[in-house]
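It is worth pausing here to work through a concrete case rather than discussing structure prediction in the abstract. The textbook approach is simple: state the sequence, then state the predicted structure, then interpret. We follow exactly that order.
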Amino acid sequence: MSLPGGAINCEELEKLARERLSPLAYDYYASGALDERTLRANVEAWSRILIHYRVLADVSARDAATTVLGTRVSMPVLVAPTAFHKLACADGELATARAAARAGTVMILSSLSNTRVEEVCAGCGGGTVWFQLYVYRDRGATAALVARAEAAGARALVLTVDAPLLGRRERDVRNRFHLPPGLRVENMTAAGYGDVLEPQAESGLATYVASKLDPALSWRDVAWLRSITKLPVLVKGLVRPDDAIRAADTGAAGVVVSNHGGRQLDGAPATADVLGPIVDAVRGRLEVLVDGGVRRGADVLRAVALGARAVLVGRPILWGLAVAGEEGALGVLETIREELDQAMALAGCARVADVNRELLR
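Step two, the predicted structure:
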């Protein structure tokens, strides 16, 4: 399956998406914090990892399927949690969830979605949905949201821990980012926290986060979250091995090595550079996933070789949505699948289990 609009890679797809999106929406999706050094480093770091391919390995039949938290997926690629999909297309997160289901993988739905978790889980076409959680100062509203996600059929919670405040995204400041009329944080409308309004200055989302989310979040809250749900909990936003060990000690089922797509602390390390040490530190006590800068199937191969269970892909999905809705998002996933299949063949790997650190030496 090809990408929409005649694009042949994610970079070309982004250019097409930029033509279709409003400047406010495109800058919101594309931007990083401050000078955007970490945003660029995330992409560049994968390309520095060389693949020492095997030969004469019989790769006539290949299978990229694997499991994440016991759920079988067709490839080690999940849809990352990103906010406000209706800025890209009218069907928003429903289009994304259906594309993920058709591709045989997991969609992680953002707390800051324009579609309620109940609607996404009911309308995803039988796919698997995980729910990304921000912890609000209003713990009652947070607990109610967790209960709703579990009741709706979400299969895991992904707790984001790297956003006590929002990183300063200068493109959003320039645009005074806000949600256009008719769009809200639908998961929080019942609690009265649905509006992201246009500010007098700065970013409306930064104001929203500073006033609504809890900057006092600590490791105790991972235990609290586990106490109010039966769902497995992953901790997202780690770049340090000692934090990953701490997550394992709290009983987390997994971690997502992530710097929030370069959108929080500019100058944080690229996720490709810290993935291996984190995998080594946790010693198999939990599953390790990674996001940030994955643009090619070979990047997926590199991540799995370093020990990741799977990667999360964010911005390319948004570009696909902007250009062609559900079909565009599906095109991104299938293009990455095709590139991964080719990379596996050329690296001498018939199965995901064949992809290991030996390829990187």
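Step three, interpretation. The chain has a mean pLDDT of 97. The first strand starts at residue 66 and ends at 68.
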